[in-house]
Amino acid sequence: MSVTTTVLFQRPQQEIATLIRDRLNRSVATRIVAGFATPGGLAEIGAPIRANPGSLETFVIGASTYPGFQALDNLLAAGVPMDRLCVHLGFSAPSGTPKNPVVRYHPMLHSKVYYMELPGSRVCVFIGSHNVTAFALGGSNGEASVLIEGDVDAPEFAAVRGHIDEAQRQATPYSPAMKEGFSWWFKEYVEGLKAEIRMPTDWVTVRTILAFSHVQGGRGPKTGETIYFEIPAGIEQIESLKTEVHLFLYDTLPADPISAIAAASTASRRYTCQTIGVENGQGNREVSVDWVIDSSWALTPVPSATFRPSTLFGMQQVRAKVVNTSLSSYEYAFERERAGWDPAYSEVDVIDVSESSLSDDVARHEVRGYRQINTWRLVTSLEPRSGSQLETDQKALNRATPESGAFILVSLRRRRSGGKQGG
Fold first, then answer.
1. 161 or 217, which is more confident?
2. Do residues 324 and 271 touch, judged by C-beta distance below 8 A?
């Protein structure tokens, strides 16, 4: 009862349809369980099944589109008995709300198992991430799978058959009369998934200075005391808008600004401050302040309350008053709100499907309404959509973003974390 296992494949984008079709052509008993199926995927593996419809003993899918269910009808027309096709509707629950009385985004069947019994009491089974779609089987998606082969009596295959039996037991029989209902149920799932994306819409467009510092000694600022620091020259809308300064004090300053932002809620002390003065260039040669954030980002007291700054070229002086020794939790954004993002494409990682084995036009083009796509390129990053408006002082703002390495930053938007929004 020896069993061998082959890992498929080192590269995630690898065509697997040829291997499955080869086994299907020799299979005397086929059982398939998949989370999702499309017309293209069914076209990839449909020919061997249509040639020997009686060999398909079980076909359970978790979801499909209306055209996908129409493709199941083609299997019925080819002679596959209807009781061998099943749809797993997942688990759900009453939502308790009248608008959507049933929870739409819910646990679904995601198994991907292609089990085939071959002549000579041999079995092969593909187990992995490949749904019955052209993108998955044809090598466009990034997928992973293992091929297990051996004697039909091996305990591993008994466990696989048990999994298939249970998936089939939980599923409901397919009927052409129900394909509209099954498609509607999947649409509800997708709509529920959209709601779970929850991109926040409660950003407040307001500039906020974030100052991350570590304190020297035990005492920290008190309400009414003033703090001096410097930011890049040319940043506008600071003094005129009475910009808030959110000061975060750490016992030990995090390694970089991005880490400081991530750890903002754990800062030992947090303060709400407000700008009371901004001076471009050399500005004041002497200022009356109680605290200074120096070039090492340390917050130090000014015993005499008089400080003589040595402002570096390209910097401007800021004074802020502590108005509260506490601070609400915020999420900060350092760019304007974007209408969209454009992908950046790799010139090296390319999938060429011009010579694809997909059997018809429907199979080759999973996404309808687009021109014929023969080449897919790896998306390496997302960039703000071309034409998105920049701030007039964007160059200066770039020197006060987390990527700049500075611990005094200027955010353009903010939102309260986990609660109703205010300024």
1. 161
2. yes
Question: Alpha-carbon distance 232 to 310, whole Å?
Answer: 14
Cα dihedral sign for 351, 352, 355, 358? positive
Give percent above pLDDT 70 in the chain. Answer: 91
Return the H-helix or E-strand segment holding 168.
helix 155-170
- Evaluate whether the domain defined by 3-93+101-197 bears CATH number 3.20.20.10: no
Tokens of 285: 């040669």
In the prediction, which pLDDT does 313 show?
85
Q: Read off the pLDDT of each residue in 248-266 and give the average, rounded to a whole number.
A: 93
What Å distances lie between residue 398 and 76, 235, 334, 412, CA to CA?
A: 62, 10, 9, 12
Inter-CA distances, 368 with 37, 83, 210, 361, 372, Å: 15, 31, 47, 10, 9
With H, G, I as helix, E, B as strand and everything else as coil, classify residue 314: coil
- Angle between helices 179-197 and 66-77 in degrees, nearest 10: 150
Location of each CATH 3.30.870.10 domain in the chain: 3-93+101-197
- Residue 392 clears pLDDT 80, i.e. is over it: yes
Tell me whether residue 131 is exposed, middle or buried, using C-beta atoms within 10 angstroms of its C-beta: 0 to 12, 13 to 18, 19 or more: buried
Contact status, residue 107 vs residue 17, Cβ threshold 8 Å: no
Task: Answer yes or no: pTM beyond 0.70.
Answer: yes
Distance CA 141, CA 40 (A): 13
Coil, strand, or helix at residue 34? strand
* 213-228 pLDDT tens trace: 998 667 889 999 999 9
- Asked if pLDDT for residue 32 goes beyond 60, the answer is yes
Mean of pLDDT values over 51-73: 96
Least confident of 56-60, 223-227, 298-302, 389-393: 389-393
Tokens 């954030």: give the residue: 293
Give the Cα-Cα-Cα angle 63, 66, 67 (nearest 5 degrees).
110
- 160: tokens are 């696989």
Beta bridge partners of 279: 317
Helix (H) or strand (E) holding 114: strand 113-118
Distance from C-alpha of 415 to C-alpha of 147, rounded to nearest angstrom: 49
Per-residue pLDDT tens for 188-211?
Answer: 999 999 989 988 889 999 999 999
Task: Considering only CA atoms, give the Rg of the chain.
Answer: 31
* Residue 158: both structure tokens together: 């008994």
